[in-house]
Design brief:
14 helices, 330 residues
C-alpha cells in the first residue's frame, strides 16, 4: 500500500496498520466536528427555552421537535458520537476490500451517470420555477395535495409532488442524497434500474401515504430516494463479496438514522412515504439483483433497458407538467 509523497514521482509506502490509524484519525476529526456543531445547535435551542422559563414563560419542549434545525443538530450530535464509537472499533477487515471487490469496482468506474444528472436536473428546474412563484402557491398548484387527489381525482399529483420541495433545506438534503445514491446505483448496477426504482418508489410511497394519512400536503423526492436506498441495501446484501467490506453496514446505518429522524420529526416528515418507497425499492432489488456472483448485475435485457427509458421519460414529463401548472399562476 502506498501514498503519494510531497515530491512528485515519489511514493511513500505505508503499512496496513498505518492506513488503519489514518482512517481512524480522519473519522474522528469529522465526528468531533459533528459533535461540536450539533451540540452547539442543540444547546442554543435548549438555552432559548430555559431563558423563556426564567423570564416567566411556560416553555413547551414539544416545539423543539417542530424545528428542523434542532432535529438536524440532534442528529449531527448523534452521528458524531456514533462516528467516534465506529472509529474506535474500526478494523482492517472493514476498510480493505478483497481483490474481487477491487476488480469489480474498477470495472464500474467507466460508467457515465447520465440518468442521475437528468433526475437532479428535473428537480432543480421545478425548484427554480417554485422560487419564481412561491412555495405555498406552487405546492397548491402541483404538489401532492391529498384532498385534491381524493376529491378531484387528480392522481397525477402523486408524481408531481415528487418533484416539488418545501424550501432550501429540503431540496439541499434531498439533492445531496439523490446525487450520491443515484450515482452509486448507476455505477454498481444499471441506469435503467435507477430510473425504474425511483419512479416506482415515488408512486409507492405516495400511495401508502395516501392510504394511511388521506389529508395534508406532501412534497419532495424522499420516497424515491428511500426506494434507491432500499434497492442498495438488497444489492449490498447479495453482492457482499464484490463490494467494500463496510458497504452494507453503511447503508443499514443510513436507513436507521433516517427512520429515527422520521420518528422524532414525525410532525414534519411523511414517514409513510419513506416506508412505501423503501419497501418498493427493496422488493425490486430482491427480484432483480442476481444471487449468482458470476452474473453481472450491470447487464440488463432489452425490455428492462426500454422500461428504464420510459420511466425516465415519465419523470421528465411529470416535472415538465409541474412546471406548467406552477407557471400558470404567474
Amino acid at each position: 500500500m502506498s501514498l503519494e509523497n510531497e515530491n512528485p514521482g515519489e511514493e511513500k509506502q505505508i503499512t496496513p496498520e498505518e492506513y488503519l490509524l489514518d482512517q481512524k484519525k480522519s473519522i474522528r476529526k469529522k465526528s468531533w466536528w459533528a459533535v461540536g456543531i450539533g451540540g452547539f445547535i442543540v444547546l442554543v435551542h435548549l438555552g432559548w427555552l430555559m431563558l423563556f422559563a426564567v423570564l416567566g414563560g411556560n416553555p413547551d419542549f414539544s416545539v423543539l421537535f417542530r424545528s428542523i434545525f434542532f432535529i438536524l443538530g440532534l442528529f449531527a450530535l448523534a452521528a458524531g458520537i456514533w462516528g467516534l464509537y465506529y472509529a474506535k472499533n474500526l478494523s482492517l477487515e472493514e476498510i480493505i476490500p478483497s481483490a474481487e471487490a477491487v476488480a469489480f469496482l474498477e470495472k464500474s468506474q467507466a460508467t457515465s451517470r447520465y440518468y442521475t444528472f437528468v433526475l437532479a436536473g428535473c428537480i432543480a428546474a421545478v425548484f427554480l420555477t417554485q422560487l419564481s412563484i412561491g412555495f405555498e402557491e406552487s405546492i397548491l398548484a402541483a404538489g401532492f395535495v391529498k384532498e385534491d387527489v381524493i376529491g378531484k381525482g387528480e392522481y397525477w399529483r402523486i408524481l408531481t409532488g415528487g418533484a416539488l420541495h418545501g424550501g432550501f433545506l429540503h431540496i439541499y438534503f434531498n439533492s445531496q442524497a439523490l446525487f450520491g445514491i443515484a450515482s452509486m446505483i448507476e455505477v454498481l448496477s444499471n441506469r435503467a434500474h435507477l430510473a425504474i426504482v425511483f419512479l416506482l418508489s415515488v408512486i409507492g410511497g405516495g400511495l401508502l401515504s395516501l392510504a394511511f394519512v388521506p389529508t395534508g400536503q406532501v412534497v419532495g423526492a424522499s420516497g424515491g430516494i428511500m426506494g434507491l436506498i432500499g434497492y442498495l441495501a438488497v444489492y449490498g446484501y447479495r453482492r457482499k463479496a464484490q463490494l467494500p467490506p463496510d458497504f452494507l453496514k453503511s447503508v443499514l446505518i443510513n436507513i436507521g438514522f433516517i427512520a429515527a429522524f422520521g420518528l422524532i420529526a414525525y410532525q414534519i416528515i411523511d414517514n409513510f412515504s419513506h416506508a412505501g418507497g423503501l419497501i418498493i425499492g427493496a422488493l425490486y432489488g430482491f427480484v432483480q439483483v442476481p444471487k449468482d456472483l458470476s452474473q453481472d448485475p450491470r447487464k440488463v435485457s432489452l425490455f428492462i433497458e426500454i422500461a428504464g427509458i420510459v420511466a425516465l421519460a415519465i419523470y421528465i414529463a411529470e416535472a415538465a407538467f409541474a412546471i406548467f401548472r406552477i407557471s400558470k399562476l404567474s
